[in-house]
Design a protein that fits this description.
Layout (H helix, E strand, L loop, with lengths): L6 H22 L8 H14 L3 E2 L11 E5 L2 E3 L13 E10 L2 E10 L5 H19 L7 H13 L4 E2 L5 E3 L6 E5 L16 E4 L2 E3 L5 E3 L6 E3 L5 E3 L2 E4 L6 E2 L5
Antiparallel strand pairs: 1-4, 2-4, 3-12, 4-5, 6-10, 7-8, 7-9, 9-14, 10-13, 11-12, 14-15
Helix pairs in contact: 1-2, 3-4
């Protein structure tokens, strides 16, 4: 079932997402070589709680932390722990927030110190693909238009789209229908309607699209050990065009 939200509901979903924007902006200032991911997670959780909100991921399907923190070849769902960031790492931080019963979801990949140019380019192209996908979020377009926008852009650079994981609807629940793949055929899939809210999240690998699950049962990492980048925004489909809910602008 695809939930259609009222403008009032979208405003509440936007408030949840604004907290995520704020926490990602805040966390960027403390990311540096030597900080461990458990400390990053604690800062994120404290920030969210101090906004009178809840970390939506903590306990969701049994996930043990407030944020998914994934380093280098880890695609998504990394569990925070003792691992420390190192110069040259990239780290994807995915955060969910619940405020007054409404959910937001966004993610960003951060560069730590002296990152290799080819990895910087991967991050830049992945973020570009997100915004190209958002441009397709017009009433009457289809999910396939979003998917194709991501795939067609990143594959120009020789990158691959993770097939096993997708974006999703969001707002009333942390994960809703429809699924939003990052690969597909333009003009195919469910039609976009006014009031839909979706989380678009390109997960793009420098090498092969193939991924594996770690022994912790959560962390998804690339099979070939090459880096992966992840960017995500929550988007409302409106008459005036797509509205990015998870930004401070």
């Amino acid at each position: 079932m695809i939930y259609i939200k009222s403008l009032k509901e979208i405003e509440k979903i936007e408030k949840s997402n604004k907290i995520i924007s704020e926490v990602l902006q805040f966390i960027e200032k403390i990311l540096k070589p030597g900080i461990d991911t458990k400390s990053i997670n604690s800062e994120i959780e404290n920030f969210i709680v101090n906004k009178n909100a809840k970390p939506a991921f903590k306990g969701l399907y049994g996930f043990p932390a407030a944020a998914c923190i994934s380093i280098n070849d880890e695609v998504v769902h990394g569990i925070p722990g003792k691992r420390k960031l190192q110069d040259g790492d990239i780290v994807g931080i995915d955060v969910g927030v619940e405020l007054d019963g409404y959910f937001g979801d966004a993610a960003r990949t951060f560069e730590i110190g002296n990152v290799a140019e080819k990895v910087k380019k991967l991050c830049r192209v992945t973020e570009e693909s997100l915004y190209l996908a958002i441009e397709q979020c017009e009433i009457g377009n289809r999910i396939g238009d979003i998917s194709y926008a991501v795939q067609s852009h990143v594959e120009k650079f020789g990158y691959s789209v993770v097939r096993d994981l997708v974006g999703h609807g969001v707002g009333i629940k942390p994960h809703e229908e429809p699924q939003i793949p990052n690969y597909g055929i333009s003009g195919k899939g469910p039609k976009l309607k006014e009031g839909m809210v979706i989380a678009i999240e390109p997960m793009i690998n420098l090498g092969s699209y193939q991924v594996l699950t770690a022994e912790d049962g959560w962390t998804i990492y690339t099979k070939d050990g090459l880096p992966s980048a992840h960017f995500e925004h929550s988007i409302a489909i409106l008459k005036a065009g797509p509205r990015i809910l998870s930004t401070l602008n």
